[in-house]
Amino acid sequence: MASTDFLLEGRHFRRDWSSAQDIGRKAAARSLIDVAAMGAVPTGLLVALAAPGDLPAGWARDLAAGLAAECARAGASVVGGDTARASCVLLATTGLGDLAGRAPVLRSGAAPGDLVAVAGPLGRAAAGLALLSAGLYLPGGATASSRGDPSPRTPLGDPPDPGGKPFPPDPLGLVTAHQRPEPPYDAGPEAAGLGATAMIDVSDGLLADLGHVAAASGVLIDVSSARLALDDDLLAAARTLDLDLTKRGSTPGSSPALAWVLTGGEDHALAATFPPGVALPPRWTVIGEVFAGQGVLVDGQPWAGPAGWDHFR
C-alpha cells in the first residue's frame, strides 16, 4: 500500500512559523496517516526534497530528524528518496504500508444505516493556524518584526506585527497542533479489523473529507453537531480572537469553534463508517449516520460556507 503527498513552502508551511523538525514531522504524518486510513500498518517513507542552494545544512539535518522522529512514532522508517535544487522548499513524501493480507478500506464502501465515527482530535490545528494568522503567536516568543518573513506573501498570509511586543507562549497547544499534528496511526488498522466500510483521514476538513466518502459511496452523510466536542482550548482560542462562541446547531456555520472542528483539517484524525451494532473502542466517537441520498449535512441542513480546504482556490 502506498500514498503520496507533498508540502510546498508558502502554500502548506512557512519557515518562520514552523521549525525544520516541525515541517519534517508534518510531511511524514500526511503520508503515513493516508496508508493507515486504508487499514494498513505504516512501514516506510520515501522522501524527495527540492530546496534553494543556500538552504542551511543545519536546516536540512533538522528536517531529516523530524522525518525520522515521526516515522518512529508510526512504527515506520525513512527508506529512500532524492534531492534537487528549486527556488523554494518542496517536500514530497510517499508512505508505504502493510495490509497483512487484508483488503484495503476504501472511501466507496459506506452504506445507508452505517454509523460515522472519528478517532483523534478535530479543530485544534485550524485554531492554531487562526492564532498564527492573527499575529498572536509565533514560535519562541519572537515578534513578527524580529523574526522577519523569508517567504513572499502567500495563501497562508502575513501576520500583523503587534508593535514589536513578544508573542505569548502557546499554553493551549493549538499552534503546536498546527505545526506538528499527531495522527492516530494505529486506529486505522483497528478500524479495518472492526469491519469499517469506508475510511479517510481528516486533512482538508471533516465535512470536505466526508464529502469524498459520500461521493465515492453514493450516499448522504448527516453529522450531528451535538456529538462533536468543542473542548475548552478551542473555546478559549475563539475568545482570544474575540469570536462569537454562543451559537451552534440551529444555525450551522455560526460558531467559529464548531467551524474549526467541521472544516479545519490538518489534525489528521480518522473518520470511518461502520455497520450498525459494531462495538467501538472508546477512542472512536460516533458523530453521524449514513442515509440514502447524496452529499453531507450538519444537523439535517447544508453547511453554510466552505466545507474545508480547496487545493486550487
Short description:
This protein is of the alpha+beta class. The chain has helices spanning 20-36, 57-74, 124-133, 144-147, 174-179, 187-193, 206-217, 232-240, 256-263, and strands at 2-8, 41-51, 77-85, 90-98, 115-119, 198-201, 220-223, 270-274, 284-291, 295-298.
Report how far the terminal alpha carbons are from each other.
30 Å
Order of helices and strands: EHEHEEEHHHHEHEHHEEE
Uncertain segments:
140-167, 244-254
Radius of gyration, in Å, reads 19 Å
Strand ordering within the main sheet: 6-8-5-9-7-10
The secondary-structure class comes to alpha+beta
Beta strand count: 10
Biggest sheet details: 6 strands, mixed
Helix content: 25-40%
Q: Summarize model confidence as the mean pLDDT.
A: 87
| Beta-strand percent range | 15-25%
DSSP summary: helix tally: 9
Note the overall shape.
globular
Structure description:
This protein has 313 residues and is of the alpha+beta class. It is 29% helix and 21% strand. It contains nine helices and ten strands. The strands form two sheets. Strands 6-8-5-9-7-10 form a six-stranded mixed sheet, sandwiched between helices. It has a four-stranded mixed sheet with strand order 1-4-2-3. β2, α2 and β3 form a beta-alpha-beta unit. α3 runs parallel beside α8 and α3 packs across α9. About 12% of the residues have low confidence.
